[in-house]
Design brief:
Helix content is about 25%, strand content about 30%. By secondary structure, the chain is an alpha+beta fold. The chain has two domains: about 325 residues, capsid protein of prophage domain (capsid protein of prophage fold); about 70 residues. The strands form six sheets. It has a seven-stranded mixed β-sheet with strand order 13-22-18-14-17-16-15, with helices on both faces. The longest helix has 28 residues.
C-alpha cells in the first residue's frame, strides 16, 4: 500500500472517530469533514503530549470548539486543494499527465508524441492556441537543445515540428524499380530507419534512403546511375498491427512540504477581565483566544489569496471607459464576457476545465449581483461572516462568487479547482490548527498576556499558475 492510500485510509478512520463526537455535524463537504477530523486528531495528540494538566483542561475547553467553528469557514476549502499534514513534514499529492517513454531524439522526443516525461499540457502554452489538438498533439520536435557529433563539435537544433498522422505508426513498405525491373524491397520503421532487401542480383541498387517527415518525400542514394528509364518507386502504408501508438500516462506524483508557524499574541488588563466577568458573565481569556484564532485564520486566507493573485498565470484587464455599450448595464455586462474569455484561457492551459470560482472585492461583486442577468443569489451555502469573506451566489451556474472586504477593489481572481483533492494548482496543508500558551502575567504592568500559534504548509506547483487568472478592473466606480 502506497503512502497516498494509507493517508486516505487514515482520514476515513479519523472521520468516523470524530464524527461520533458530534464535532463534524453540519459539515456537508466530505473533503472538509476528513480534513477537519485530521486536524482535530493532530490537536488531540498535541494535547496528550502537554505536561501541565491545568493547561490541558483549558486547551480542551477552548481550542477544539474553535477548530470546529473556524476551520471549515476558510476560503481555502473552496478554491484550492487542502491536504492536512500528519506530521511536521509530509508530501503533497497532485495529478500529472505525461507523455510515454523515450525512444530517441535529442530532447527525448518520440516519433509518436511530445516530450516523454513532460506534462502533456506543457505543450499547450501558446496563447493563440494554434498548437492545441492539431499536428503538435502527436508530433516530435526538438527545441533549443544541443548534441555532440562524433568529432565533438557542438550542434544546436531549432524548433522544427514534424507533422504526424497517428494512424500510420508502424512501417512503410515499398519496392524500388530500375525501369520496369524490380531491384529491391524496402521497409521504413517508425524511427525513420531504412532496410533494403535485394530482389535477385541487381547490378544497380539503392544503398541508403531518407524520409522527410513533414512532406513525406523519399530520397534514395544509388550505387551507380540507373538505366535509361527513370527509376520508379512504389510504396504503401501498413495500416494494421500497429505497435507504436501515441500514449499519455496519468501519474499521481508528490512533492515534499514543511509546515511553518504563524504566531499572534494579545494582552488585556485585569480590570477589563474583572468587569467582563461581573457585568456580562464572560471569560476574557476565552474571548481573546477566539479573536486571536479568527485573526490567524483571516491572515491565512489573505496569504493564500495574495499568492494566487501575484502568481496567476493569466493576467487580463477590463476598462469601463473603453468597453462597448450604450448604457451602464450593457458596459457592466461586458465584464461577464471578459470573464468568459479568461475562463476559456484557463481551460486551454489546464486541459481540465474553465474557471469555476471568482474572488473579488464587494464593489466588483456588486456588478455581478446587479448587472448580470444570470446571477443567482446564494442559497444554502454561506459563511458565518467571522472571517469576512462571504459567498454571494453563482453567475450563469458556472462560477461561485466570493467577496472579500479586504480584497483590492479594482481586481478579481478566478481559478479552477477539480473534484479531486489532487486536482489544483495550489495546496494548503494545515498541521496544528491552534497551539496556545498559558496566560502569563506581566510583572511590570500586571496585564495578562497570551499567545496563539498555528502550523501549516503551502505550495504552488511548478505549473500551478496556469490554474489561476488575475483581472484588473478600471474606472468602474460611479461617482
Amino acid at each position: 500500500m502506497d503512502i497516498n492510500s494509507r493517508y486516505l485510509n487514515e482520514a476515513k478512520v479519523l472521520e468516523k472517530t470524530w464524527g461520533a463526537t458530534g464535532l463534524l455535524e453540519g459539515i456537508s463537504d466530505p473533503r472538509v469533514r476528513q480534513a477537519t477530523s485530521i486536524l482535530l486528531e493532530n490537536q488531540k495528540l498535541v494535547n496528550e503530549q502537554a505536561t501541565d494538566t491545568s493547561d490541558i483542561a483549558q486547551f480542551q475547553r477552548i481550542s477544539i470548539p474553535l477548530i470546529r467553528r473556524i476551520y471549515p469557514q476558510l476560503i481555502a476549502n473552496k478554491i484550492v486543494s487542502v491536504q492536512p499534514l500528519l506530521g511536521p513534514t509530509g508530501l503533497v499529492y497532485y495529478l500529472r499527465f505525461r507523455y510515454s517513454s523515450n525512444k530517441g531524439a535529442t530532447r527525448g522526443a518520440d516519433n509518436n508524441g511530445g516530450f516523454p516525461g513532460d506534462d502533456a499540457n506543457s505543450l499547450m502554452q501558446r496563447a493563440d492556441g494554434t498548437a492545441n489538438l492539431d499536428q503538435w498533439y502527436s508530433s516530435s520536435f526538438v527545441e533549443n537543445e544541443t548534441t555532440n557529433t562524433d568529432a565533438g563539435t557542438l550542434v544546436t537544433s531549432t524548433y522544427a515540428p514534424m507533422e504526424k498522422t497517428p494512424v500510420i505508426t508502424n512501417t512503410l513498405l515499398g519496392t524500388i524499380y530500375d525501369g520496369a525491373t524490380a531491384v529491391q524491397n524496402f521497409t521504413v520503421n517508425s524511427a525513420g530507419s531504412f532496410t533494403f532487401t535485394a530482389i535477385g542480383s541487381p547490378s544497380v541498387y539503392v544503398t541508403a534512403g531518407s524520409i522527410n517527415a513533414t512532406t513525406g518525400e523519399l530520397t534514395f542514394t544509388w550505387n551507380s546511375a540507373p538505366g535509361a528509364n527513370h527509376a520508379v518507386l512504389s510504396y504503401e502504408y501498413n495500416m494494421e498491427c500497429q505497435q507504436d501508438l501515441p500514449e499519455i500516462n496519468l501519474a499521481i506524483e508528490s512533492e515534499s512540504i514543511v509546515a511553518k508557524a504563524r504566531k499572534l499574541k494579545a494582552v488585556w488588563s485585569v480590570e477589563s477581565a474583572q468587569d467582563l466577568r461581573s457585568q456580562h458573565n464572560l471569560e476574557a481569556e476565552s474571548e481573546i483566544t477566539g479573536v486571536l484564532a479568527q485573526e490567524i485564520n483571516l491572515e491565512i486566507d489573505r496569504e493564500i489569496l495574495t499568492d494566487i493573485r501575484q502568481n496567476a498565470g493569466t493576467t487580463v484587464a477590463w476598462d469601463f471607459n473603453t468597453t462597448l455599450g450604450d448604457t451602464i448595464k450593457e458596459k457592466y455586462e461586458s465584464l461577464y464576457v471578459k470573464v468568459v474569455e479568461t475562463s476559456a484561457v484557463i481551460h486551454r492551459k489546464t486541459l481540465r476545465g474553465g474557471a469555476n470560482w471568482i474572488v473579488t472585492s464587494p464593489e466588483v461583486a456588486s456588478i455581478f449581483e446587479t448587472a448580470t442577468a444570470g446571477f443567482a443569489p446564494s442559497g444554502t451555502e454561506s459563511f458565518s461572516g467571522n472571517l469576512g469573506i462571504q459567498y454571494v451566489g453563482t453567475v450563469m451556474n458556472r462560477w461561485k462568487i466570493y467577496k472579500d472586504p479586504l480584497f483590492q477593489s479594482n481586481q478579481l481572481v478566478l481559478g479552477y479547482k477539480g473534484d479531486s483533492y489532487m486536482d489544483s494548482g495550489y495546496f494548503y496543508c494545515p498541521y496544528i490548527p491552534l497551539t496556545q500558551s498559558p496566560v502569563v502575567l506581566d510583572p511590570e504592568s500586571l496585564c495578562p498576556r497570551k499567545g496563539l500559534m498555528t502550523r501549516y504548509g503551502k505550495k504552488m506547483l511548478r505549473e500551478g499558475a496556469k490554474f489561476f487568472a488575475r483581472m484588473s478592473i478600471a474606472n468602474f466606480m460611479i461617482s
